[in-house]
Fold each of these.
Amino acid sequence: MGHQVALSFEDGVTKVIKVGDYETVMDAAYKARINIPSDCRDGACGTCKTFCDSGSFDPGDFIDDAMTEEELEKGYLLTCQAVPESDLALQIPATSESAKTSAITFTSTLIELDKHSESTISFSLEVQNREALAFLPGQYVNIKVPGTDAERSYSFSNGPDVEKASFMVRITPQGAMSEYLRDRAAVGDTIEFTGPYGSFFLRDPKRPLLLLAGGTGLAPLLAILEKLSQNPPATPIHLIYGVSREADIVGLDWLRAYEAKLPNFTWDYIASEPGTSAPHTGYVTQIIEPTHLNDGDVDVYLCGPPPMVNAVSKWLDSENIQPANFYFERFAPKESTGGDAETGAPAPAEKIQAEGDTISRTEAVSSLETGRLDFRKEDSFAQLDARMGLELAVSELLLGRLSEEQLRQFRRLAEATTRSVSAGTVQDPEEFARTNEEFHEYLFVVCDNPTLLESYRRLDVHAQMAATFEAGTRIFERVTQDHLDIVDAFERHDKARVRELITGHAQAAKETMAGAIDAKTADH
C-alpha cells in the first residue's frame, strides 16, 4: 500500500507523493519527477539530508560524514536511504523551482454556492484533473476571482480525499471575491486556482489536539477534522470556534456531525458581541480549560485574524504554557488585500518585479502567513543547514568575480557585526541580528540570480535569532572573525577555505542557537 509523504519546499509549495513499501523517499520523488537535492544516493554525502516534521521511518544505512546518530535522533533523515513506516511530512532544503516542480494551476467548475448569512458564503468546485490535486488538510490555494485579475487565498474546508474542493469566504463590502460571490457567481462558472501552499497542515497526531478557529478560520480545521475522522486517534480533540456577531455563526451542523465520526471530539463556541446565541460571550482564551492544554503536551492548530493569533500566544505565555507544537495560519491585514479582511492575496507580478529585493517571504506567494509560532532546535538547525547550502552554492558562482568595490562592501558588512559582540556574548541582540543578516545576505544580493536571492530570503534564520537572542546570550568565540576570514578567502580566491569556513560557521551557529533556545526555555 505504501505511504503518503509531504515534501514542503522553502518557497511555500508542498508536494504530496506516494512512496511504496520498501521504497526510499528519493526513488519515489524521482518517479514523480521531483528532483529533490541529491548527490551520491548511497548515504555517504549528506546532500539529501532533510528534517522529518512528522511520522516514522526506517533510516537505512549511512555514514557519520553524511548524518550523525544525534541528527537522526533529532528527526533528520537521508531521503536516499529512508523508507517511510507511516505518512511523513518532510522539510526539503530547496525551492520547488530548483526541484523542477511547482504549484499547479487547476481549472474547475462552480457546482455549489451556499449563502450561510450576510457575512459568510461557502462554495464547492468540481476540479478537472482532480487526481493531480494532492494537498494536506489545512493548506490553501490562490483562487483567481472570475472577471478580474485579482487572486485571493483560501484554505480547503474539505479533506484531501473528498472529490470536490470546498471553501468558506467572509463577505466584506470591498472584497474582490466577496463582490463576485455575492453579486455575480452562478453554478457553472469556470474558476481557476493555483496551489497548494502553506505549512499549516495536520501532522501525525501523537498527543491531544486543541483546534482554535476565528471566523472563517474554521475552514482549514474542518479539513483537519475530516482527515482525522478517517482514522480517529485515541487522544482527545477539542475545538473552540470564536466569532464576532450572530451572523458569523455558521457551520455548527458540520461540527455536530463530527461528534459521531470522532469518538474523542468535543467542541465549543463563543462570540465577542453580547446577546448572540453563542453559549459564551468573550474570546476563545476565556474557555480554554487546563484539560485542553494537558500541561503543555498538546498540539495547537490556530487559524484566524492577526489579533487573535497574537492574543492566544500572549495568553499562553501569561499562563506559562508552552505547547509541544503551535501551528498557525494568520489572515492578512485588511489593507493588503483590497478590503478582504480574512484572506491573503499573492503579490502582483509587477510588484514582485519592482520590489523583488524588499518584498517579504510570504507576500510573493500570499499575504496569508502560515507556520509554527514557536520553533524548536530542529527548526533552527534545518534553517541554518539550508543557509549553509545556499551560501556554498552562491560562493561557487561568485568566487573570483567580485569587484574591488564589492569586496570592500563585503568587508564593511563583516566589520559591522563585530560591534555588537564582545567576550563571547551578544551585547546588542537587535543590532547583531540585523548586521549578521546583512552580511550573510550580501552575496545573494550581488549574485544577479533572483532564484538564489528568493530562496535565501525565505529562510527564517534572522527572525529566529531576533526572537531568541538576548543581551548576554553566549555565542561562539570566532563568529565575527569567521566573517572577516570569509572575506579574506574571497579576496585570495581560496575556494577550499571558503567552503571550510562556511560549513564550520554553520555548525558553530547551530550550537549557539541550541544554547540560546535552552536558556530562553529555562527562563520561561
Amino acid sequence: MCILAYRLPVDDKMKYILVTGGVISGIGKGVIASSVGTLLKSYGIRVTSIKIDPYINIDAGTFSPYEHGEVFVLDDGGEVDLDLGNYERFLDIKLHRDNNITTGKIYQHVINKERRGDYLGKTVQVVPHITDAIQEWVERVANIPVNGDQQRPDVCIIELGGTIGDIEGMPFVEAFRQFQFRVKKENFCCIHVSLIPQPRTTGEHKTKPTQASVREMRGLGLSPDLIFCRSVNPINNSVKDKISLFCHVPPEQVICVHDVSSIYRVPVLLEDQGLGHFFIKQLQLTHFSPGPKKLMARWRELANRYERLIDEVTIALVGKYTELEDAYISVVKALKHSALAVNHRLNLTLIEAADLEPERLNDGPSKYHTAWHQLVSAQGILVPGGFGIRGTEGKILACQWAREKKIPYLGVCLGLQCAVIEFARNVLKKKDAHSTEFRPETTNPVVIEMPEHNTGVMGGTMRLGKRKTLFTTQESSLRKLYLGVDYVEERHRHRYEVNPKFVDLFESHGMKFVGRSEDGERMEIMELSDHPYFVGVQYHPEYISRPLKPSCPYLGLLLASCGKLTSYLSRGCRLSPQMYLEEPQDDTSDEELSALDQNGAAIAKPVLLDAPE
C-alpha cells in the first residue's frame, strides 16, 4: 500500500511556499527548499519548485563555473541555476527551463510585449508591469506537471535568490508582497532563512543579524511565517524565544537548522521539529492524511547509513575549476550517491588538470609532484566536462595513466573526447591527434565541431537536453549496468563530437563505441576492451543521478574502484538503494508501514555489496 492511498480529493487552489534569505548569501536556501519539498512529498503531496535568480542574464548558460557554480541542464535543454539540480535530486522530479526565473527573462518578456503593442501605448514600469509579469509567470509554471504524468502539483516552493535588501531583488520582493493577497493568505507561506552566528569569543548565538533582516523584510511588506535559523550548533529555547519576541513569530515557528553530518539528514531534521503538521495546518492541506511516511523512512535510513560508513574509496577528479567545488556539484553528488550505494565513504581528490602537465615544473616542482601523487594514489579516475584548452593536456595524461595502469576510469563529455585523443596519439600513433576546438590545424582531427549547434551566438547554441542513445552491442559493461535496455535517454551539453571518419580505426584497435545517437552518426558511449572499467560518455549522466537512484556510469566507476563490479553484475545488478525505491506491496499492513516510518529501516533486508570478488 503506497502513500498515495492516503491521498484524498484535493483542493483545486495551488499552495505557495516562498523561501527567502537574510544576512548572507549561500546560506543553504536551496537545500532547505528541497528538504521542505521532500517533507511534503512524504505526505503524498505533489510538489514543484521555482528558483528565482535576480541577475540580468537570460540563463546560466554563459556563466563561468567560477562565477556562479555549475550550469545545470534540464530535459528540455534549459541551462539553469544549480539549485534546480538540488530540487530534482531531492524530489525526483523533472523541471523545465521556465522553472528558473531571471531578471533577464522577465524584462525580455515585458519588452517583447511592449514592442508588440500589448500595453496599448501605456508607460511600461516596474510596478505594475514587471511585478505583474513575475506573478503571472509563477502562477503559470506552478501548474505544469513535473512527475512524468499529467497531474498538476499541489504545492509550489519558490526560492528567491540573494538576500533581502539586495537592490536587484526588489522587484521580486514587491511582486510577492502583492502575490500574497492575490492568492489569499491560506494559500501562501513565507520562510525566511537567516544566519545565527556564534562568535568564538563569547560562544553565544547572536540574533541581531536575524532581527535586522526580518525588520527589513517586514518593512518591504512580507512577514515570515517561519524563521529557519542556520547555525553551526543547535540553538536553545532561549535563543528561539528571543527571535520570536523581536521577529513577530511564535517560538514553535522558529526552526533550528544547524550543521549536520550530511544533507540527507535535513529533511529528517525538519520532520522531527513538526514541520509537516505545520504546513498541513497553515496551508489548509487537511485533505492529506498524515499516514505512514515511507519516503521519509527511506531518507532516515539513507542518513543513518551515511553516518555508519567505515570503508573509503578514493576517486580523483581531474578538472580545471577545482578551486570551487560547486563548479562540479552534480558530478560530486553523483559520486556520493554511488559511493553510498556500494557502502563506502567517498574520499574525493580534486586535481587541477594543468598541474599534471610537465610545463608546471617551470613554476616549481611542488604542485606537479603533488598532483601526480594524488593521481597515482586514486582507486578510480574521473575527467568531467569543460571548455577551453587550459588543462587539456593534463586531462589527456590522466586518461593515459588510467588506460595503461588499468585504473577504473570514467570520462564525461570532454572526458570522453580526451580519452579518444590520448588513444589516437599513443595507440594509433597519430601524434598530432587533437580536437579542432583546441588545435584547428591538426591533420588528425579525431574530435570535431558540430556546425549546426554553433550559430555564432553565445548561450543555448550547443546540443542540449535529453537525447536518446542506442546500444549497438550486448557486450557492454555499461549496458549491463543499465539493466540490459536497448537505449537510454540522458542529458547533453556539448558542441564537439568524435569524428565518425576515425571510428572504424578506433574500434579495430579495441576502443569500442557501444552507444550511438539514433541516426548512428554521433558516438555517445565508449568502452575499452581488456580493461576493468574504462568508459566515456558524451552525455552528462550526473544530471539525473538521485540519492536513491545512482547514475549507472558513476555506479560502475565506484563498483570497479572498490573491486565489486564483477560480483555486482553476476548478482543481476542488485543494489540496496533500489530496495528503498520499491513501493510497498498492496498486502503490506498498516502496522508494517508504521514500523517502517518509526524505525527508519527498509522492510526488505537490503543486499549489501560487501563480498570480495
Amino acid sequence: MIKSLLIANRGEIACRIMATCRDLGIRTIAVYSDPDARAKHVREADEAVHIGPAPASDSYLRADRILAAAKATGADAIHPGYGFLSENAEFAEDVRNAGLIWVGPPPSAIRSMGLKDEAKRIAEEAGVPVLPGYRGEAQDLKTLTAAAKDVGYPLLIKAIAGGGGRGIRLVSKASALKDELESAVREAEAAFGDGRVMLEKLVEQPRHIEVQVFGDAHGNVVHLFERDCSLQRRRQKVLEEAPAPGMPDDVRAAMTDAAVKLAKAVKYEGAGTIEFIVDGSRPLSVDSFWFLEMNTRLQVEHPVTEMVTGTDLVEWQLHVAGGGELPLVQDEITLSGHAVEARICAEDPSDGFRPGAGLILEFGLLEPVDGDLIRWDTGFETGDRVPSAYDSMIAKLIVFGDDRDEAVDRLIDTLAHTQLVGVPSNAGFLRRCAMSDAFLDATHHVNWIAEQGDALTAAPDSHQHASVIAVCDVQLDASGAAQPWDVKDGWRMNGAPMRKVMVAVGGDADWIDPNEFDVDQDLPLPLVTDLSPRRYAVTTAGDSVLVDVPDYDADVEALLGGDSVKAPMPGKIIAMNVKAGDTVARGDTLAVMEAMKMEHSLSAPRDGVVEAVSGTVGEQVAEGMVLVQLIEEE
C-alpha cells in the first residue's frame, strides 16, 4: 500500500493526482521549478521540493533531482503524470532500483512501445491490423525512395522515436520526398536525438480513435472502451469524447479486442492507451482501423473515460502499482452516457495560437462544478501566474450527458461562461469547434480544423460589438450616482440628450451610442472585468477583448500610437533590429522575443525615432519591460 507519493509533474495533472490521493489518505509531495514556486500544485501538496530553474531540462526532466527529492521526503512511490519523464524507461528503472514504487508500466513495455517501428512489429505479431508501410533498418535515400514507391503516394514520413506530431511530414508526390525526408530527420534528431524514420500509407480523412487499457502484475488486462480524439490542430488534440460517435457494436468489439491483445503481448501493467487511425471517409467497419501507437501512461483525456465508466483511473493506477489486482473484471466495466473534454489553453487562436504568459486576473466557470455533469480539472486559479517555459494548457473542462447531443450542448453552454482574463484564451475557439456542423454531425476528422482557417480562429464581429456595448452600459450606469450631477443621462443645455461613450479596442477609438447597435440577442451575456477605472476585459461567448475608455484626445493619441515597445510576456530577446537614433515606421519589426517555445515579433506602434534601446540579445526580460523607447522625428 502506497502511503506517500511524489508527483514528478506540475500543473493540472499534478493537482488531479493529488485529488485522488486526498480521498485515499495518501500523503503527497510536489516538485517545482523556480517559476512554479507558488503554483497551485505546490500549494495543494503536503510537502514540496524545489528541483531547479525554469527550463524543464534543468528541473522536471532531471531524474537525479526528482529521486533525491523522493529520498529526502521519504516517499514510497513516484507518479510521473504525463509528459516529461512519464514514458522514459530509464527513469522507471531508476525509480525501481532506488527501492521506490513506479506508478506506471514496466520499463520493458515502455521500450517495446516507445519506438513506432518496433511497436508495429509487435502489433502485427499479435494479430492487430497495421497500415502498409516501410519499417526497415536501412535509412538511405535510395532505399526509402524505392520503399515509398511500393507504399504509394500520398504517404507520411514518421519519426520512429518520440511523439507530439514532431518528425512527421506529408509527402504527396515523389519529387517532394527528398526535401521532406531531410526536414523530418532534422526535426526528429533535434527533438528525440534519433533521426530514424518510417514510411506509412496516408489515410486522407483520418479519424483518431483510441482504447483505454489497464493491466496488473497478475496477468489481467481489461479495456475501458474507446475515446474519439479526431478534432486536432497540428496533430495536437483539441476536443476529446467518449464513446466514439457512430461506433457499431461489432467494430467496438474488434477494436477493443485488438487493444487488449497488444497490451497482453507486452505484459502491460497500469494505464495505457492503444491509438488507432480510422478511415473517416466511410462508416466505421471492422476493416477500417489500423494500429497507430501506444501511449504507456495516463492520457490527458482520461477524464472522459472516467465519466462514462464511473471509475477513477488514478486510483486504479495506485492500487495496481501497489501490487493489487484490477478492481473490476471486464464484464463489470459498463459504458453509460457521453462525455466531452475541452483543453483550455492560454493562447490566442486569432494570432496563430500564440501562447501567452502572465498574471491571471480572473479564471473559472460561472456554471456550478459538481463533478458529475461538469468537471473542472485545473492547475491554475485567479491570481496565479502562467509561466512561459511550459505547455500552454492550463485546465480541462469535462462535461457529461445522457447522450452525445446533451453532452455537446452542455459543453457549448459552459464554454460560453468560461472566463480567463490576463492571458489569452482559446475558449471561444473551442466553442466554435463544438458548435460547428461537422462536430455536431460527427463528420469531422483529424485535418478538419486546418481546412477551416479563420472561420474558427477569428472571433465574430458580433462578439466584439457585444463587448463594447457592455462597457458602454457600465459607463452609462447611473445606479452609483452620488448626486444628480453624476447621472449620465446625456443631458445638454442647448441640445437633445446625447448618451455616447468613447471606447477603444486595439488601436481603434470612436464615440459609441449603445442604442445604435443591434446586439445579437442569442449571444450569452458578456462577462465584464474591471482592470482599472477606464479599462475593461470583456468575455463574450468565450472570446475576450480589452476595451478602453480613453480620456478624450490625449488618451486616444497615446492609444493609437504610444512611445514604448514593451515585452508582452516574460521571455528571451533573440533579435534587436534597431539602435538609438534609427528612424522607424509604424509596423516595422523592432525586436523578436522567444517565449512559450515560440517567436514573437514586436512592432513599432507609430512612426518615430528610436530614443533608447533597453534590451540586449540573449537577455531574459520580464513582462512589461520597456525594450525600445520612441520619440517624434524632428
